[in-house]
Amino acid sequence: MKYAVSILTLLAGVLHAQSPSALLGWGRENPAVDGPSRGMGDAGAALRSDKSWDPLLVARSGFNTLTALEVQVVPSLVWIDDGTTSNTIGNVEVPRLSVGIPLGAFGHLGAGYWQRFSRSFAFEDFNDTGFTLTGEGGSFEAVGSYALALPFDALRGTALGLSYHRVMGRDRVLSEHNRKSPDEFYGVSRLDTLETRRDGEYWTASAYYTRGPYDLGGWMSIPGEVLLTTHRGASDQTFGADAKRTVDAPVGWGGAGAWRFATHQAVVARASLESWDGAVSDASDRWSLGAGWQWNGGGDRFDDLWQRSSFRAGALGAFGGPGDPSTAALTAGLGMPMGVLGTIDLSAQVGQTNSESHGEEVSDTFVRLYVSLTGANRWGQSQRKRR
Amino acid sequence: MRRTIALLTAATLSGCGLTDGPNRTGSAWLDSLDLGPEALRSVTVPVSELSLDTIFDPGAPDLPGKGVLSLGRSDAFGSRLSLWVTPSDTTRWTESSQRRDSVWVLELSLATSCPSGGSLGATLWDSTALGTVSPFAFLAGADLDAPATANLVGGACRDDSSTGLGRVRIPLDSTMVLEPSRGSFGVRFDAPDFPARQLAGFRLIGSHRDTLLLGIQDGRTGAGARVVSYGKGSLAGMNQIGTRVRIRFDDAALRRELSRTIGGKGFSSDSFDNTWALFSARVGMATSSSTPGLARRLRLASWVVRSTDTTIVAASGADRSFATTRPEDGRSMEGEFHVRKIAPGLVRIALTAGSDSIPLLSRTSGNYQYSFLMFQGDSLEVPMYQDPGWTKFRFHYVGDRIFFVRDILAAPVAADDQIESVDGSSWTFRDEAVVRTGSGRGVFEARSAFGRILNEKRRKVFTDLYSSAISSDTTVDGNFRIDLPGRSTDSVTFLLRRRSLGVVP
């Protein structure tokens, strides 16, 4: 397993072709949801689970009973179209790594890495003027959380959670323009670099309630500050000292719910709002919406694999934010148990992101295949006792 | 496990295999956000100059009247040498007898052999004759309305039989008795009939072996000697050295003109303007005349004073090092310079051999690579190469202390690659532009220099136009001349792209 993770992480670092729309704001944003939610329109944050962890709605983890390690990898294909030309590019990212440890009556500890924003893209001028523009890196968050299911009878089914988000990371936008004059022996190359480093923090408080077939949760992030350090460099140019400014972290609030009906089915929904005005001036708020359905398999290890698997479907949309892009996608997912190794969740998201500026539009039609591996078990108990 | 790894790997690699290749989609969208490739723009704009001077030394700054000692005139170059003599400064008398001696000669030592022909005269001004004109104004070359105290006529220039260097003796007024009680006076050389030459030094010699040293600056101007050059805007070859034209372009006007022509918002701060990525800057330069048969290469390079630091050292009888550390980059230059008081009011400053600093005029003697003497009150500039580039070291001898002022320059811009069109169908690669007789015009590439001129908003950019030899003429010696008609350049054709790299706000 560790070899697979290493290989995938390496590939994620190497493959970085993405749409130039990653220039918008802090980059292309990855929702932080868990593997099963990817197949349910990113909307399963409230669906009760024994091992899932959401860095925003961490209160849900107060009811977790399994120690879990989750790794997500997402290879994707993007068809970029600007009305005149189109291009197909591939990409691999590792949007999330997380670990959750239940402490019984003492609550639940969680920690994770969230590659929230990605600046990765590559562009060459259509007219072959020798101009290239590339982006790399992004902003990520290290998240630590604590959740506690309240032990009072009057508040049975209620949990509270608090998560700390450390904002870190660096992205760079690099342009290179090469030109050779017909009457000169050597060409001229002009390089430009814009590097942005981020360092900040914020907190998120959440509450969760589960009773019978219903699950409800909500979260609100307490605005924190992020120090942006901008460094510029260019051929034959002198710049001033690195520019530093403090902005608000792009955070907001949200809510999610789930209704587990029949024996194996559930519907979920999620809505959240991110405020961007404090992070990027004059940027609009970003709404993220999602809804989904799940058929959850059951039985024991001797049953057929498909009977034990989960099937999911959903839809999601995101609107607003820096540059006012809009995204809509349909999702489908499959969760398969892998015995002692845990589960593997495969989720496909097919959709389109559109961004328009001064009448010029670029659209990214994407197919993302989220591969999520979750190893879950009970710590501190022998294999025999677990059975 | 194997199936899992195979599945993950296949999923991961599936994104790669279907990729078309480099992405070329989104040009218009990027342009609309001011982030795109934008076509290169070719713009020809007039340029104006804030100042134009003829100087000798590379590096910056070059304070008025300071630098290389010279006198005389050529077709393209002339200098006014002014000396100020203070007999009451007894530290400069080499003999203590201080006899009343009325036979005194001002001896000028040339740095080269004598020119053929030419006469050298001077005018002498008593301090009382100068009236309200201060010694500083006199040294700075101020025009004087009051009649001179005396006109001095020099003898013939004679080459020393051993050194081959020229020497001219000019008797002072025979009625003038030189003694410590005598008031100060100035001597000025306009020397319109003497071919321009570099000076190594000068002194006053009495008939009884008394000598009054005016300065021992080793060919450089000091507190009592200043040179103001004429013939601004001309490149001229002199023996051993050539002149260069120092230009201060009107950078603000240039930026305004480019902004007006190209439009759009700039990418600018208080100190720097990074709006343009410059790919070419073809400088058009008209020449009003040049020496027949001339074919000279031209270079245009620029400097910026990045920082200035000062070190103070007390002079004593023993060698003491200048313990200098450059605050700019923390580099230590300790021990490079030694200072020693060799007589009351006279110090020797020496650069030790093997130093990181390299003087423009190197003359190794023992452990010293370069040395000079300074009298109390002297002020001296020495061009020096010290990484990252040419700089100017300034020394001031005040009281018993030496003030060492070092200007750190931004890395000098090397001359850009040049191409000379031969017959319109082929080209020859050269390092610099070539100006030929009769062409009346030179065009050369100066993108690096103009890139800096546009970039630097707060700091002064010193731009030097200078000549170097071409392959068939490997020395700078000899007399050549390129006259510019009152200005160095008439226009510059830029090939540039507005720099707008950033992210979408």
Structural account:
The complex is a heterodimer of chains A (387) and B (505). By secondary structure, chain A is mainly beta. Chain A has 4 helices and 18 strands. Chain A has a 14-stranded antiparallel barrel with strand order 2-3-4-6-7-8-9-12-13-14-15-16-17-18. The longest helix of chain B has 16 residues. Helices cover 10% and strands 41% of the residues of chain B. Chain B is mainly β and 505 residues long. In chain B, the strands form 6 sheets. In chain B, strands 3, 4, 5, 6, 7, 8, 9, 10, 11, 12 and 13 form an 11-stranded antiparallel sheet that branches. In chain B, strands 2, 15, 18, 22, 24, 25, 26, 29 and 31 form a 9-stranded antiparallel sheet that branches. A 4-stranded antiparallel sheet of chain B has the order 1-33-16-30, with helices on one face. The two termini of chain B are 46 Å apart. Classes of the chains: A mainly beta (387), B mainly beta (505). Chains A and B meet through helix 1, strand 2, strand 3, strand 5 and strand 7 of A and helix 1, helix 2, strand 16 and helix 6 of B.
Name the descriptors:
heterodimer; A: 387 residues; mainly beta; Porin; 14-stranded antiparallel beta barrel; 4 helices; 18 strands; 6% helix; disordered N terminus; B: 505 residues; eleven-stranded antiparallel β-sheet; nine-stranded antiparallel β-sheet; 6 helices; elongated
